Amino acid sequence: MSNVYEHTLTLAELSRALGVARTRAEQWVNRGLIDPKLPGGQGKTRRWTFLDAMRLAILIDVADAQLPLSGIGDSEKWHGEIENWLNEVDRHTKWIHGFTDDSAFLIIRYGLHEMIQSTPRGSPPSKMGGGIKVLQPGLLDSDVVRWSKLANHLASPDGRLFVVIPLSQIEQRIRTIWEASLKAAASNTKDDD
Q: Where exactly are the structural domains of the chain?
C-alpha cells in the first residue's frame, strides 16, 4: 500500500467521505478561506493532500459549531464573522502536526500578549517575561500541544478564551478516509490487470 501522506483525493471524493456538500468547500476555496496545496488549473481537477483534508475537516467542525455568537440576529454580519473566524482558524492550521507518543490538540488562544522592548542593533535580545502584557482585540495565537501538557496551557493566567481542537481525532477520521481510498485504488488497479 502506498504512503498515506503521498496519496491525494479530489474534492468530490473528500466531500463525500466527510459528509459535506462539495459546493460548501468550493466556496471556501473561492473566498480564500482554505488554500489547498496542489492547485488545479483549467481543465485540471484540484487534488487535496492529507494535510489539506485535515484543515478542511477542522474548518467544517468550526463552521458547524457556529462559534461566533455576537452576530446572531444579523444574518449578514453573522456570516461575515464566521468567515473571519474560519480565515483565522485556517491561518492557525497551516503548521499543524501530531505526536507519535501522545494525542495532539490545536489550541487557539485569545488573551494577553507580551510586548518585548526593542534593543539596539547588535546587543543581546530582550528576555521573555520582561515585557509589558497587553490585550489586543482580535489577536489570536495558537500552539499544538500534547494531551499531557493541555491542562498547563489552559490554566495560563494570560488566556481569556481557548478553542481546543482534537487533532488526533481529526487525523484518525482523515486517515480512515485515506486508507479506504488507497484500498479502493489498489483494488481498481488489480481489476484492470
A: 9-192
